[in-house]
Amino acid sequence: MATRPHHLLSATVVLGVVRLMCGYSFHNCIEDLYSNRQSFHCIHRKETDMFAYTRDLPLSAVNVTISNTYLRHIPKDSFAHLPNLQNLKMDHNFLSRIDRFAFQNLHQLKFLNLSFNNISELNCFVFEDLHNLTFLSLTKNKLKQLPEGIFSTLLNLDTLIMRQNVMTNFTGIAKSVSHLTNLRILDLCFNHLTSLSHSNESLPKSLTVLYLCRNDLYTLGCKHSFLRYINLLDLSYNSKLPAMAFAGVDLRHVNYLRLRSTSVKVAEFLNISNVNAGHIDFSGMGIKNNMLIELCRLLKRKLKVIKNLRLSNNGIEMLTNKTLRHCPKITGTLELSRNNLQHSICLNFLSGQNQVNRLDAEHNHLTSIPSCKQKNAVYLKNLEELSYRYNRILTVSRDAFYHTPNIKTLKLNINNIAFLHRKALKGLKQLVTLRLDNNLLTDLFNDTFEDNFNLQVLNLRKNRISVIFNGTFRSLGNLTTLDFGGNKITHFQPSGLDGLKSLSKLYLDGNNLKQIDSSLYRCFQDTLTTLDLQSNQIHFHKEKISSPFLNLTKLRDLKLDGQRPHGLIVLPRTFFRGLHSLQSLYLTNNNIGYLAPDVFDDLTSLRFLTLDNCCVGVTQLKPGVFKNLQNLTKLIVENMGIQNFSKKVFGNLTQLHTLQLNRNVMQSIPADALESLPKLRYLDIRDIPLSCTCENTLLQNYTLHNPNVQVVYLYNMTCQSDSKFKFYNFDTNVCYLDLGQYLFFSTAVVIFLFTVTPLLYVKLYWKMKYSYYVFRSWFSEQWSRLREKEEKCKYDAFISYNSFDEQWVMEQLMPNLEGNGSNFKLCLHHRDFELGRDIVDNIVTAVYSSRKTICVVSRKFLQSEWCSLEIQLASYRLFDEHRDVLLLVFLEPLSERQLSSYHRMRKIMLKKTYLQWPGSDCTDPIQAQDLFWNQLRRAIRTGSTLVTEENGCVAPEKEKSEHVEKHTTDKYYLQP
């Protein structure tokens, strides 16, 4: 036999530990409540991969149910990581293939159910590891035969069920089970076996129960001793099986033999077989009327006493008082169900059989039960249980059971009884259980039950009773259970329930009660434990009413579900006042618009509360509504429209074990509210539109890392915004940023900016302003056009000056540069700037459309913002393009102190030549001015770099940089 290495088990253990660390939920399974991680059911799932069900089950799993799925295949090692598994149920799937090692490592498995699948073949080694298996069911599959040795290792197998297959070869079956020394039950019903031929095989001595019903047996074909250890043998519905088939077969140990719907003739069989005649079930053997008398005579020749005589489904139409006199004494049950009896005739057919203690006459055609207070009536003092269920009884007459005074259980349910005589039950002083449910009764009278003072259970469910009259139950002081469910009761008369001083369970569901009258419960207010008021017409429109349950101090279960037609509507604040012992409260399907914060205050012992589907629209649960429910262990609030789950509302539920919140409307669930429930073990939050945002980060962390709380199908929950993403793994990294650190740095930056900005404003004001305008123009369409115009050099020089110096520009500069044969083209703002255009754009255009920029510097020039901008633009072009495009002309002497604030101008003066206008104090101003204009004209014509047509404006050839020597005059000079 092949085995798996130990490292496989170790690996699976590690996987189990990792899974528990990652969260207590399962992809396709739910742990059963209070199972301590041992029992799981995986039902109605659509996954087709076996590992989708088993891979995340814990090592501790003992019981697993995988049913009603789309599974078709059980691959190898499907349960290898579940070595503690003892019960595995995989019924009602589509399984057709099971690999050899599918059940590998399941050495502890005791129960395996593979019924209702499509299995047609089994590998002979598929069960080899199941040494402790005691129960195996392969019901309703497509097995035709069993491979040799398939059960060779199942030495502890007790029950093997293979009914509803298509097997034809009993020899193979016998060979497969012959060595199973502990096999006790073998079920082969609903197959196609034709005989019990078994070669030289024998059934194990331990086998005592053999079901062979509904096959195609026409002979047993087995050895004399083959069935000698069988106690229960079912051969029913083998329609071709004759009596002669039992000749020579040892059936002495059989104590229950079923031959229903076979070809066996009773008389012939009793003469041939050695089976005890008292152990034969004669149901369905075609024994009618006269044949019954013959049967009785045969039985009496063999037996003096018979315990049970089963005659169901024989088509018997009538029994006379002489029919059963020829039978042995019947001391137990006489079964006459599923016949055609039309009259019971006060059970006179039991004449001479007064020791019968149970009579079943169900599923017959009885239409009435007549009065039996007659002189010739058979007195049946030993009859204790009588069942007339599933007949057509319309009336029950006076003294109908006079002849059976000691009946303890009477079943008249599921008939058409419309009239029950008020004295019909007279004399039944020992009656304990009375079933009158599912009839047509409309009235009960005050003396209907007067003799039934020992009655404990009275079932009147699903009749047409509308009113309970005074004194109806005055004699039923021992009644503990009264079921009026499904009637048409609108009210009880004032003393309608008087006398029920021991009543414990009262079922009034499905009636037409519109109010709860507390005065009705006064006689059993100290004993009532269960009150069912589901589906009545109880409703309230105001909050202030007195509690109808004030004195029901022992009430433990109260059901108020689904009040018709619109629900309770209002739940009065004091409605549950006095119910200090209540443990279960059902309020499902009520349209309660508001729950007062103190409505449940008196329910201090409550353990179970269901409010699912009880509210209308969006529900705002008020803080403190559950504050006194500290013993509550299970709370169902499904589909209530709850939009606020908070600690203030649910925080006091310190014993809560199960919380079903599914199908509500909250988009977030605070983790601290769940953490305030220390005993929580089961959480259902399916079908809630939870957002996959930072708001639910803590909830995600709670569901994934809380090893004590099972979150139902957590890994299948999707994000509200996009169903492609799962809630359990949506990205939360952005939610864990160190906000303190970021706030510190951002605050530090802000403080730094507030500190440095004033200094930068003072020192770099024009630089910043210039940069702003340059970049604004750079990205505009105008900037592109300016770059193109710059290549063409429309002007020889742009003159930057202050308006206070305009006279000098007009009278001196223009005539000497544009006239006197110089023919330079100058750009002057008052003449050449485009009207209506932004002044900054005009300045930029002038600077980049001119070969040179001449700044006429004076004190007023230095004080002008626009002049400063112009020199900034020109200097930017100078340093950016490395061209000698800036010329400085000083109209008046300026000291170092006056120039100290203009760093860029001083930087230019240190690197480039500049001109100073010779003033009137010169010794020879005319000669000095001529020299000034000559030098300025030369500076305009020349440049510091050679510029080609491709690279810029067409300029004179490159000249060496030179410094102009200082002249003999004092004031007019060129200075580096």
TrEMBL record:
<keyword id="KW-0732">Signal</keyword>
<feature type="signal peptide">
    <location>
        <begin position="1"/>
        <end position="23"/>
    </location>
</feature>
<keyword id="KW-0472">Membrane</keyword>
<keyword id="KW-0812">Transmembrane</keyword>
<dbReference type="Pfam" id="PF01582">
    <property type="entry name" value="TIR"/>
</dbReference>
<dbReference type="Pfam" id="PF13855">
    <property type="entry name" value="LRR_8"/>
</dbReference>
<dbReference type="GO" id="GO:0038023">
    <property type="term" value="F:signaling receptor activity"/>
</dbReference>
<dbReference type="GO" id="GO:0005886">
    <property type="term" value="C:plasma membrane"/>
</dbReference>
<feature type="transmembrane region" description="Helical">
    <location>
        <begin position="742"/>
        <end position="762"/>
    </location>
</feature>
<keyword id="KW-0677">Repeat</keyword>
<dbReference type="InterPro" id="IPR003591">
    <property type="entry name" value="Leu-rich_rpt_typical-subtyp"/>
</dbReference>
<comment type="similarity">
    <text>Belongs to the Toll-like receptor family.</text>
</comment>
<dbReference type="GO" id="GO:0006954">
    <property type="term" value="P:inflammatory response"/>
</dbReference>
<keyword id="KW-0433">Leucine-rich repeat</keyword>
<dbReference type="GO" id="GO:0019731">
    <property type="term" value="P:antibacterial humoral response"/>
</dbReference>
<feature type="compositionally biased region" description="Basic and acidic residues">
    <location>
        <begin position="956"/>
        <end position="970"/>
    </location>
</feature>
<dbReference type="GO" id="GO:0005783">
    <property type="term" value="C:endoplasmic reticulum"/>
</dbReference>
<dbReference type="InterPro" id="IPR000157">
    <property type="entry name" value="TIR_dom"/>
</dbReference>
<dbReference type="GO" id="GO:0045087">
    <property type="term" value="P:innate immune response"/>
</dbReference>
<feature type="domain" description="TIR">
    <location>
        <begin position="793"/>
        <end position="940"/>
    </location>
</feature>
<keyword id="KW-0675">Receptor</keyword>
<keyword id="KW-0325">Glycoprotein</keyword>
<keyword id="KW-0395">Inflammatory response</keyword>
<dbReference type="GO" id="GO:0002224">
    <property type="term" value="P:toll-like receptor signaling pathway"/>
</dbReference>
<feature type="region of interest" description="Disordered">
    <location>
        <begin position="956"/>
        <end position="976"/>
    </location>
</feature>
<protein>
    <submittedName>
        <fullName>Toll-like receptor 13</fullName>
    </submittedName>
</protein>
<dbReference type="InterPro" id="IPR035897">
    <property type="entry name" value="Toll_tir_struct_dom_sf"/>
</dbReference>
<keyword id="KW-0391">Immunity</keyword>
<keyword id="KW-1133">Transmembrane helix</keyword>
<dbReference type="InterPro" id="IPR032675">
    <property type="entry name" value="LRR_dom_sf"/>
</dbReference>
<dbReference type="InterPro" id="IPR001611">
    <property type="entry name" value="Leu-rich_rpt"/>
</dbReference>
<keyword id="KW-0399">Innate immunity</keyword>
